[in-house]
Specification:
The complex is a heterodimer of chains A (about 300) and B (about 325). With about 300 residues, chain A is an all-alpha fold. Chain A is built from 16 helices and no strands. Chain B is built from 15 helices and no strands. The chains are: A mainly alpha (about 300), B mainly alpha (about 325).
């Protein structure tokens, strides 16, 4: 047996099965990546198409004709879209700053082995993922008892913390050696100073990852807005604004028509697609720069809770 | 016998009590020494107290005939009537069936594709190719789920949808896809796979990347083919990851991907039979029908059932490998 294997030298690397597997892999991965990307192409193409051609022939992968009319219409009276951008950006920036600070503090404290209440508090937080009051009681509580119906706070506050991100933070904090805490203690630093001055700088990748997930939560938010804001606010968060344009016939007219456009046959098909591009564009543009933090969050937080 | 047991009963506290008291004392001493750590947890504690525990007593609505004027605890108590109605009407069964079946399809097809994709990604040697293809595959998970509704509209609507455009060009008759209930399980499963397969493959890909290279070298020297390498090295090494992910997915089998279902189907009653899951129904009852009692009852059923499932799964995981247990 041994001689047999020794007789066969390294040409095994070019074994036919390897060639087949590699070719199949390249082809399949390419096809799957295209499958993921094509819907985006579809939307962008449609947004630059001519409405009359869409009405006649329907949407297609390549633009039918070429027109920027839909974008011009959106930016002719940009009040709504700018307002929505302002609301979403404000919420995202504040939400990431506050949410990250609280998540980091909590994760750090709950990971400290010399903190006697860590298990009790961890369970108190974790239990909320196991059992929840349900949608209707939560709605009544937040909208009625807390009086937050029609307030951006209802959206902002409920997205601020998530048990999963606190658990993820705890996992990240495990990588900080306990000697760091000890050395701080020896130097007479308090727990908060140890956290802020010694541990926090070591947690930069963790902060980037968790900040990204918080930012995604705020940027992509439409659900809480649909429950608590509805049409009570003038400027809807961006994705909820898009949701309305797609799902309600009048939203489109209200959002672009304003005073100077009185159109009975609005280019509604291309306008919907252009709105989607405008609402999604920025996140796709920053995506390549933050992708690695996205991946690290999944691998660190995936299996172990 | 009796004597002995009383003796022990009398004796036992005498031994343990002082030490327990001492334990409490040192525990509280430890707590007072870590006041700052407690203070750092305080914002989170207040947050979950207000937004997660605060609404919990309101689940009582499920046992009442709720009306706004009398409030949660003033509305008439009706016992299990709301649940009886849900069971008798067959609604609870339909929702449970749809939710569970969709999740099973997602879990089975999803995991097979994720593992396959991870193995194939591992075969890609060109760094640039790998980077670009991965970027494209994660993108659907990154964008808002509202966009899925836009894409569905673009592809499937009757008048201008890309699918019907293609059918017309090839000489067929356009389809009224938004009223063809039988088609939607496929549409929803494809949309789910589009959204989450790339993202889900990361975990498996990371597990393959973590494998020891010497195993592959040894296999190459022994003349193993590519298939043998996959069959005997990669797949077995993914088994623990697979089992844990599978178990936790089963634990969450009562929970649905609300955003996806709602943005695809929404209030389209023609499709409920094949597409309505617990979450969409709970949301619709509240938002469109203002029906607090039934919405709460279905939600409570889901929460309790889901709780039991997760606890069971965690118990099983703990027996397999305590390291992976959630608590």
């Amino acid at each position: 047996m041994t001689t047999a294997t020794l007789d066969k030298p390294r040409k095994l690397k070019l074994d036919s099965s390897e060639v087949v597997l590699r070719s199949v892999s390249y082809v399949t991965v390419t096809l799957f990546a295209l499958f993921c990307a094509l819907p985006f192409v579809l939307i962008v193409s449609a947004s630059f198409s001519e409405e009359s051609q869409i009405m006649e022939h329907g949407f297609s992968l390549l633009p039918r004709g070429f027109s920027t009319a839909a974008y011009e219409l959106i930016f002719r009276s940009p009040r709504q879209i700018i307002g929505s951008y302002a609301v979403t950006i404000t919420m995202t920036v504040l939400g990431v700053a506050v949410g990250l600070a609280i998540t980091a503090m909590t994760g750090f404290a709950l990971q400290r082995k010399d903190f006697p209440l860590r298990n009790q508090i961890s369970f108190f937080i974790y239990f909320t993922t196991l059992f929840s009051a349900g949608l209707a009681p939560t709605y009544l509580w937040v909208a009625r008892t807390l009086g937050l119906r029609g307030s951006y706070l209802a959206v902002f506050l409920q997205l601020l913390l998530s048990p999963w991100l606190i658990i993820l933070m705890k996992n990240f904090c495990r990588s900080v050696p306990y000697e760091v805490v000890e050395s701080g203690k020896i130097d007479g630093a308090g727990d908060f100073r140890i956290f802020a001055q010694l541990v926090l700088p070591m947690l930069k990748p963790a902060l980037a990852t968790i900040g990204l997930f918080l930012a995604l939560g705020y940027w992509n938010e439409w659900y809480l807005s649909s429950l608590y804001l509805g049409s009570t606010v003038e400027f809807k968060p961006l994705q909820y604004y898009l949701y309305n344009i797609i799902n309600t016939a009048n939203a489109l007219r209200n959002s672009v028509a304003g005073d100077n456009v009185t159109i009975t046959n609005l280019p509604s098909n291309t306008l919907k697609m252009a709105s989607a591009v405008v609402a999604t564009g920025p996140i796709v543009l920053v995506y390549p720069f933050v992708q690695k933090y996205f991946v690290s969050g999944i691998t660190v937080g995936a299996v172990k809770g | 016998m009796g004597m002995q047991s009383t003796e022990r009963a009398v004796e036992a506290p005498a031994v343990t009590r002082p030490s327990r008291a001492k334990g409490y004392a040192s525990f509280w001493k430890g707590v007072s020494h870590s006041k700052m750590l407690l203070l750092m947890c305080l914002p989170a504690i207040v947050f979950f107290l207000v937004f997660a525990y605060g609404p919990m007593p309101g689940a009582y609505i499920a046992f009442t005939n709720f009306n706004y004027r009398d409030g949660i605890f003033g509305s008439p108590f009706v016992g299990m009537k709301n649940f009886e109605f849900l069971i008798k009407s067959g609604q609870l069964w339909l929702l449970t069936k749809n939710t569970v079946l969709y999740n099973l399809a997602f879990i089975v097809i999803g995991n097979v594709l994720q593992i396959g994709l991870a193995i194939m990604l591992n075969e890609i040697r060109s760094k640039y190719f790998k980077k670009v293809s991965q970027a494209l595959m994660f993108l659907p998970y990154f964008v808002s789920v509202v966009l899925i509704g836009v894409i569905a509209f673009n592809l499937l609507n009757y008048d201008t949808g890309a699918v019907n455009a293609l059918i017309l060009e090839t000489g067929g008759n356009p389809l009224k896809i938004y009223s063809m209930a039988g088609l939607w399980p496929f549409i929803i499963i494809i949309a789910h796979l589009w959204q989450s397969t790339g993202y889900g493959s990361i975990v498996y890909f990371a597990a393959i990347m973590g494998l020891d290279d010497s195993m592959f070298e040894a296999a190459a020297i022994d003349g193993a083919s590519a298939w043998q390498r996959i069959r005997y090295i990669i797949l077995p090494s993914l088994k623990p990851t697979f089992i844990i992910l599978l178990l936790f997915a089963l634990g969450g089998i009562m929970r649905g991907n609300f955003g996806l279902f709602w943005n695809l189907v929404g209030n389209n009653a023609q499709l409920y039979q094949t597409t309505d899951i617990i979450e969409t129904s709970v949301y619709r009852m509240l938002v469109s029908q203002n029906n607090f009692t039934t919405s709460t009852a279905v939600g409570l059923y889901q929460s309790l059932f889901g709780f039991v499932l997760v606890m069971t799964v965690n118990w099983i995981v703990r027996r397999i490998n305590p390291d992976y247990a959630l608590f």
